[in-house]
């Protein structure tokens, strides 16, 4: 089971100059609530934009740089190896696995995702990094929550095809 979590605006914008284009603490709190105690997989740029390992989560970071090092994260040079390791840890710990971005990492794992956690930020912001268009017709809506600045929708992949 592989989950993806992302916040995007009405144009699918997710980032600007390696930062979030908005400052919405309620969305950060929701991200924390959903991903706590899980395994999170991210790209090196997202890791550097967060600036530290996410607490209470096992942090996997993807980079092609063989010299990249941080003592509190697990570093992978290949997404398939990161996924294999995460799945084997999941078997032992029952932790969820979240793909948390950025764009290149979302794109790589999209075909494998069973569950989306989308925060649809209200409005159109300025930025340079976008979430790809996706087809959710094979997913059902398990939950929605409306917040002041965004709408959260939880999609789960249908397991039966009639
Ligand atoms: N709105 C949201 O929910 C959200 C969530 C996350 C991120 N973001 C935003 O997204 C933006 C960053 O996205 P991004 O696409 O530019 O960067 P990214 O996906 O975070 O990181 C890209 C880096 O990951 C590594 N990488 C990518 N593919 C790899 C592969 N096949 N094997 C090994 N390493 C690989 C490379 O690191 P090296 O260059 O070190 O080799 C690459 O430069 C930022 O603006 C951030 O704020 C938004």
Automatic annotation (TrEMBL):
Residues 1-162 form the DHFR domain. InterPro entries: DHFR (IPR012259), DHFR-like_dom_sf (IPR024072), DHFR_CS (IPR017925), DHFR_dom (IPR001796). Gene3D superfamilies: Dihydrofolate Reductase, subunit A. Belongs to the dihydrofolate reductase family. Its EC number is 1.5.1.3. It comes from the Bacteria. GO terms for molecular function: dihydrofolate reductase activity; NADP binding. It is an enzyme of class 1 (oxidoreductase). PROSITE patterns: DHFR_1, DHFR_2. The keyword Coiled coil does not apply. GO terms for biological process: dihydrofolate metabolic process; folic acid metabolic process; one-carbon metabolic process; tetrahydrofolate biosynthetic process. GO terms for cellular component: cytosol. Keywords: NADP, One-carbon metabolism, Oxidoreductase. Coiled coil: none annotated. Key enzyme in folate metabolism. Catalyzes an essential reaction for de novo glycine and purine synthesis, and for DNA precursor synthesis. This is Dihydrofolate reductase. It catalyses: (6S)-5,6,7,8-tetrahydrofolate + NADP(+) = 7,8-dihydrofolate + NADPH + H(+). It holds the Pfam family DHFR_1. SUPFAM superfamilies: Dihydrofolate reductase-like. Pathway: Cofactor biosynthesis; tetrahydrofolate biosynthesis; 5,6,7,8-tetrahydrofolate from 7,8-dihydrofolate: step 1/1.
